[in-house]
């Protein structure tokens, strides 16, 4: 089977995967409507109707699970489906009558339908203990626990005022780029790297390691006869950047690793400009398998928003309107020293006016 | 061939509950006979007990002729879990818009069942199909089968990462340019940059058809191409009135939420001061039948977003307020190459383009990439008087000017 070795062919042409109705109405859609939670219809200038059913997925999927999706797409959608930027599965139907049976079949194999429009969609997340060396917490497990708890907001059982996007990253590398989410769940280390002096020389390039530290906490040093480094622990902000370039500086530590929670970021430009998430809770201990303290904290924040936000108002817009002091009061979260920025440009986040809701 | 020895009481708790369970997905594959999946569950159970991960830093592995697309992964307790001692990740470039046919999905599954763990991420946050877990020996055979079936690897390391895009004109009436066509073209045009890392650090491109930015490009991509328009929002007054009749509070929910307060509603007619509209999409989102973007469409080009590592997180900022996005996209490609040239020459090791912009100053950066400064690039002009003028005059300078 000596086949020619092909390289640099790029991804397959997407056009072959578009259902005929999309090819015909490509760029000529007129409007869409949400028919019920998780189901929308797009209507073309032509009058053609395309129905979309959005289903939650765990993102980490075995081929067996993917084949189930393929079978359902074949049964109801002429064999066409897609995935979304938030890891949901979308089934593309032309027959309205197929919607109910599809949803019933999805329920049968454990995939809830929802996440469209004003709702909580799936959690963008990362690898965690399943597959990464840098993780300060697991990813899939925390996501599963939080989504089990927030399920009612995904499938439309409980209505929400606007969109709410949650994301999780298991360390500050942020493979999920979570820093602009309504609620961000972020794994954090809190102990400086444990230097393996005897491995330093063979595993790492010392000048690179020194240069990698954003706060210049690392200096070359000889320790017990090994060329190595020393770290000024007072300067360490646990970013793990040095570990990224040098395996002899492990950061993970069962006693000190855990989760922080950030709120009020967004990427959409609708109404207010895109903005970063801000620190709500500096640290919660890892408590597998269900991280009850994390799910409870997230639920509390969601509930405060659901109760208080106006129509369309995203978490950050809501907090902006009521003010951060009130946010801390309503959620019962304690405001601590860690909430005050002390890195570059920190002063920009200080309150620089006397406009205070007394 | 279920492994009856396996005991994972903590993970078993995550099989319960309404949200689909990743544990069930892994377990199903273990029950199909994938030893690696069984041992992965055991290793993960151990992490849940010890509250610490058990993976080592990746080593350099890959397929012949490529510098990216494979991430080496080794367990730090190899003796106890031999089936996942090597458990490398392969990134496969997704079809644009993440569209598939059942057959194409099954093709990927067949290949991965033959050569790896059978576990995947659909998809990674950059956009690739992530094939999660195989041994070094299986990399070339997997690659051979993927390419025979028209799939190729995505990016990793200091290269152009796999570009991705929103569903765009395929299923969204608001797409201001063809996000899928552009993304396919850029991906094909720069296969070398994608597969052979030669940049100071990673470079991500994400394409959204409008300011809703459904692929989060402004937060997650070094280069964010966000659709917009420069003529008028199209208004269907009958549909506006229909919204009002159906109980929509247009004054409060639409006019009141417009960031530039450029919408008027007199109870019968809606008027928009388009010269003051910032194309934020709010009114259109809220009234999809009544309002539509204009027809003179293109994109706003922004540069520099990144997660915190190394110097802190950034959002992309405007470098071209409006550009037409039409084949063959030469203006855009030229701009990207000028950016890469300057960054390639002056960027430090592991310095993202956004950090370089900060270090040399946006003004200098623009000069280097031959883009004229315009007020749309700043939220407001500087408020600090320490200006770095580059030249000053001496008494006899004037005469030189006359030459
Ligand atoms: C025709 C209308 C729209 C279409 C076809 C569309 C399509 C999509 C899709 C398919 C996703 C991935 C969704 C998921 O997995 O849950 C998404 C995500 C997103 N959408 Fe939309 N969307 C539309 C309207 C909007 C509106 C009205 C907004 C904002 C007001 C918006 C902002 C976003 C954002 C911020 C994300 C998440 C990006 C991320 O964090 O990964 N979209 N959109
Ligand atoms: C070995 C450790 C790591 C693993 C297993 C890992 C895994 C991943 C995966 C699977 C993706 C999705 C990729 C795709 O779709 O193509 C990703 C994206 C990403 N990675 Fe990592 N990564 C690691 C290390 C890092 C490091 C060191 C950094 C920071 C310098 C980093 C920052 C990111 C970011 C910001 C994204 C998301 C980008 C986006 O939203 O498009 N990762 N990572
Ligand atoms: S966020 Fe950190 S721990 Fe999680 S996958 Fe990325 S690099 Fe690994
Ligand atoms: S973790 Fe970050 S701050 Fe601490 S020593 Fe390493 S690079 Fe420096
Ligand atoms: S970014 Fe805009 S054009 Fe693209 S899918 Fe989202 S709403 Fe539609
Ligand atoms: S798009 Fe935004 S800025 Fe423009 S009129 Fe509508 S709400 Fe106002």
Note down, in words, how this protein is organized.
The complex is a heterodimer of chains A (358) and B (403). The longest helix of chain A is centred in the C-terminal third of the chain and has 17 residues, at 292-308. In chain A, the strands form three sheets. A five-stranded antiparallel β-sheet of chain A has the order 1-2-3-6-5. By secondary structure, chain A is of the alpha+beta class. Chain A contains ten helices and twelve strands. Chain A has helices at residues 20-25, 63-76, 99-108, 140-154, 197-203, 206-212, 241-245, 292-308, 315-322, 324-331, and strands at residues 29-36, 39-44, 49-55, 60-62, 80-83, 89-93, 166-169, 183-188, 218-223, 226-231, 258-263, 278-285. In chain A, helix 4 packs parallel to helix 8. In chain A, strand 1 (29-36) and strand 2 (39-44) form a beta hairpin. The N and C termini of chain A lie far apart (79 Å). Chain B has 403 residues and is an alpha+beta fold. Chain B folds into four domains: 1-49, no CATH class; 54-155, Alpha-Beta Plaits (2-Layer Sandwich); 164-226 and 301-377, Sulfite Reductase Hemoprotein, domain 1; 234-292, 2-Layer Sandwich (Alpha-Beta Plaits). In chain B, strands 8-9-10-15-16 form a five-stranded mixed β-sheet. Chain B is globular and about 75 Å long. Chain B starts with 8 loop residues before the first helix and ends with a helix. At the A-B interface, strand 1, strand 4, helix 2, strand 5 and helix 4 of A face helix 1, helix 2, helix 3, strand 1 and strand 5 of B. The site of one iron/sulfur cluster has 14 residues of chain B, from helix 11. The site of one iron/sulfur cluster (SF4) has 13 residues of chain B, from loops.
